[in-house]
UniProtKB/TrEMBL annotation:
Start-end of Low complexity biased regions: 7-20
Domain of life: Eukaryota
Name of this chain's protein: Predicted protein
InterPro entries, per the entry: Heme_Transport_Util_sf
Taxonomic path: Eukaryota, Viridiplantae, Chlorophyta, Mamiellophyceae, Mamiellales
Organism: Micromonas pusilla (strain CCMP1545)
Region (Disordered): 1-49
């Protein structure tokens, strides 16, 4: 017990002094530390400057890519719509040969005839949206529209392929407006002709019901990435003037 007490006493612990050789081995010269810090600072600033140059190069490349991508998009004011109103009342109509008569939907008939002559054989996507379904068909625009009087239903316009495997019908008395619209969606340029009818609404409804799309015809892109050929676009754009001449102002 006495031995245990003695072994734990501070006076019983012997501390060996460090030798001169040990001091020389452990300690480094005082002047070496400042030189090391200077080198570290130089390396840090050099690495930081190099990193900044790399970031600048990446930012510049990204800006160039964005500018190139913007060049491929249409200008902000490129999207446009030409729209005209067509009334169902009978009008006094004269054809190119000078023959005149009362003809229902004469202006609309003239526009459809002009559109068919201009866009004949141009690949087009015909779209009809119903309450519960959508029908689409890609066909060349038929060259010659046909018109038939169907009693109370009025004039029916038929756009049909030569082999009759495709037919689209429009009851002209239901058409109130026609629009040519160009837009950009998902990087693609869209050129459309839309035929509008009027929404059914109770008498005296205010405001007037918004026209409802009866049928849409979109130029079908056959080029790379679905691009519409320039020749087809030029033909489509020429119809804007025809629409303004044949239709009434809204």
């Amino acid at each position: 017990m006495t031995n245990a007490m003695l072994s734990s006493s501070p006076r019983a612990i012997a501390i060996a002094p460090r030798s001169r050789a040990s001091n020389r081995d452990v300690r480094a010269p005082f002047s070496a530390a400042p030189r090391s810090r200077r080198r570290n600072e130089q390396d840090y600033h050099s690495a930081r400057a190099s990193g900044s140059r790399r970031v600048s190069v990446v930012v510049a490349a990204a800006a160039a890519d964005a500018k190139a991508a913007e060049a491929d998009l249409p200008p902000s004011d490129w999207a446009k719509e030409w729209r005209a109103r067509f009334d169902a009342e009978k009008v006094f109509h004269c054809d190119k040969e000078g023959a005149c008569d009362d003809k229902e939907n004469a202006a609309l008939v003239d526009f459809i005839v002009a559109a068919s002559a201009t866009l004949a054989d141009v690949p087009s996507r015909f779209i009809v949206v119903g309450d519960g379904g959508i029908l689409e068909s890609v066909r060349p625009w038929p060259k010659t529209p046909r018109f038939a009087e169907l009693g109370a239903k009025g004039t029916c316009c038929t756009l049909a392929s030569d082999d009759k495997t495709f037919e689209a019908h429009l009851f002209l008395s239901r058409v109130r407006e026609v629009a040519l619209a160009r837009s950009e969606r998902g990087g693609r340029k869209i050129y459309a002709i839309r035929f509008f009818g009027e929404e059914a609404a109770p008498m005296g409804t205010v405001p007037v019901p918004t026209p409802k799309t009866m049928m849409t015809v979109v130029l079908h892109g056959t080029g790379e990435g679905g691009e519409v050929p320039a020749e087809a676009v030029e033909k489509w754009e020429s119809l804007a003037k025809v629409l303004e001449e044949k239709g009434g102002k809204l």
